[in-house]
Amino acid sequence: MKKEYKNHILLVNPWIYDFAAYDFWAKPIGLLYIGSILKKFGYNISYIDCLDRFHPKAKKRVEPDSRCGRGPYLKTKIEKPKGLEDVPKNFYRYGIKRNQFVEALSSIEKPSLILVTSFMTYQYQGIIETISLLKNSFPDAPVILGGIYANLCYEHALTNSGADFVIKGEGIKQALKLAKKYTGQKTLFEFNAEDFNSYPYPAFNLQNKIAYIPIMTSKGCPYSCAYCASKYLNPNFIKRDYNAVAKEIFFWHKKFKVKDFVFYDDALLIDSKNHIIPMLEKIIAKGYNVRFHTPNALHAKNISEKAAFLMFKAGFHSIKIGLETADFEKRKAIDNKITNEDFTNAVTNLKKAGFVDKQIGAYLLTGLPKQSVKEMEAGIKFVKQAGITPVLAYYTPIPHTRMWDDAVKASRYDLNADPIYTNNAIFPCMDNPFSDEKILYLKKLAASP
């Protein structure tokens, strides 16, 4: 029986269409923030997650604790996208089965408005399919598309996604205006999107199962790295009060028994004396058995001896450092956030605090424009000599970044013609052909003792 809602808004996390995908602590935190804010304004919210690893009809599941919350998505082999037919890899729809999504749509009341989020630019085909099915089920409900793809490839999304509106810029403000327009709901107060402390907790409780909780203590980044779009997506760097962050962690742990917490910050350790350090001290004082992870990487220059000690004591389980390249003479063209000395000190401080080699990884960008295999080899060897784990981060050309023009010139594909060609699985900026054998060699080199 369908639930009857008034002022009903449906949130949808779409499928991923790609050569490879895995749940490395990936949740649509922006969409779920909007959901909780809309609920605060009196709207009725439904949520369908096309990437739900814990769908009631899923036959195979990886229990959260076994991999710190991570796990594989269900996948269905589909036809390769036009222009990439010659790529010697299988192409998949990642997430729940198509009929399961259709069943979910048939079980809910017609929404007044549908909000769809987006992730990587080259995964837009999953968004198109998702929106098409939404339109079939609810032809009169406006579909709003936001998120990373919508922002970075706005014109492409307008033309191809099938959405009625594409949000560019601050999504929360626009979502609230559209919700008011299409439901007629009157709001009692104004929401200040610039005051991060006023945000309610993201609506993770709408999930079938909470395997982990992403945490944001800040939005944006003070750096402007050539390969990164953080500055474009979040021009202002704003932080939450550390007390509020600690309270959120305590809330999810106590009420939902969550053990794994994942920091989504792009600059977690900035101004650590007034931010992360007092926050960690509050967490340590509670003595909870929790694990923290930093998949977005930490800036090495901010990993002081005190910060490393407190991170270890608080329960940080996996640490990633944003090294990107070990060629320190050339790195000025990439970023200015780290020196050789910064990196060495960071590793020393982490090990001194008690972290073991396997807990510490350093990201190395792989497949940059004009980057040679020799340069990539050197980076792997440099990280291994430091006694930690090299982590290959395949480069994705991103519009609106300083490196975009170089990527366009270096690529064997016409990157401006279609976002599909920016897929990092095909190493679009490497010489053609760039064989799987070379990548397999680099992966083996990184994994070897």
Roughly what fraction of the amino acids lie in strands?
Answer: 15-25%
Q: Could you tell me how far the N terminus lies from the C terminus, measured between alpha carbons in angstroms?
A: 57 Å
State the low-pLDDT regions, or none: none
Helix content: 25-40%
User: What is the radius of gyration?
Assistant: 22 Å
Series of H and E elements: EEHEEEHEHEHHEHEEHEHEHEHEHEHEHH
Annotated CATH topology of the largest domain: TIM Barrel
Number of strands: 16
What's the CATH class of the largest domain, please? Alpha Beta
Q: What composes the largest sheet?
A: 6 strands, parallel
CATH architecture of the largest domain: Alpha-Beta Barrel
Mean model confidence by pLDDT: 92
**Total domain modules:** 2
Structural class, judged by helices and strands?
A: alpha/beta
For the largest beta sheet, what order do the strands appear in spatially? 9-12-13-14-15-16
CATH superfamily grouping of the largest domain: Aldolase class I
Quaternary structure classification: single chain
Label the overall shape: globular
Q: What's the helix count?
A: 14
